[in-house]
Amino acid sequence: MKNLSEYINQLNFDYLKTYSGFQQEVFEKQQAVFEQKMADLQERLLTSSPQKQELIQNRINETQLRWEREQFDFREIAGPDGALIQSATKIAHLPKVDPVVCQIVEILNTPFQEQYHWMCWPVFRDSIVFYRADHTVAGIVHICLGCDQLADHQRQFFEADYKIFPQLRSVLKSLGHKVR
């Protein structure tokens, strides 16, 4: 496990964005879009010429694979390069000097003493993405408030004291996250 405080303190960032994802109402809308897209592709496959059928079948396979990856892979909102899942919603965009950013950094710098390990696999419904001035990703903290887990952009879990999660929940709610 990585040391959260060391990770946060080594980040050279100019602003951050918070994202929320994997929310039920967004998922249901996207599932409907996916199902319609698949139905359209299947219909095109049935009515297309033999020359185009292979291209359409490849598109069906790619669409299915992307959907499955997004739903069942490591449950995170943003990949290592900052690419977002379809259900991700940007909640806040804050400069480094914003008092809320200072509060977030302070929370994430809470000394590690004890961490609880629940018997579930985390679903990172919330993420904080740190950006440099040139808009490249400096770092990511994925947050699962259901099982009190944090992970970085390389899918490595952090040592995170159990006391930070109520504080993170409160800050994220104040920004507009739909925290459960």
How would the blueprint of this fold be written?
Elements: E1 2-3, H1 4-10, E2 15-20, H2 24-47, H3 50-72, E3 89-95, H4 99-108, E4 126-131, E5 137-144, E6 149-151, E7 158-159, H5 164-175
Parallel strand pairs: 1-7
Antiparallel strand pairs: 2-3, 2-4, 4-5, 5-6
Structure description:
The chain has 180 residues and is an alpha+beta fold. The protein contains five helices and seven strands. The strands form two sheets. The chain has a five-stranded antiparallel sheet, with no helix packed on it. It has a two-stranded parallel sheet with strand order 1-7. A hairpin with a 4-residue loop joins strand 5 (137-144) and strand 6 (149-151). Helix 2 (24-47) runs antiparallel to helix 3 (50-72) and helix 4 (99-108) packs antiparallel against helix 5. The longest helix is centred in the first third of the chain and has 24 residues, at 24-47. It is elongated and about 65 Å long. 24% of the residues are buried. The model has no long low-confidence stretch (mean pLDDT 85).
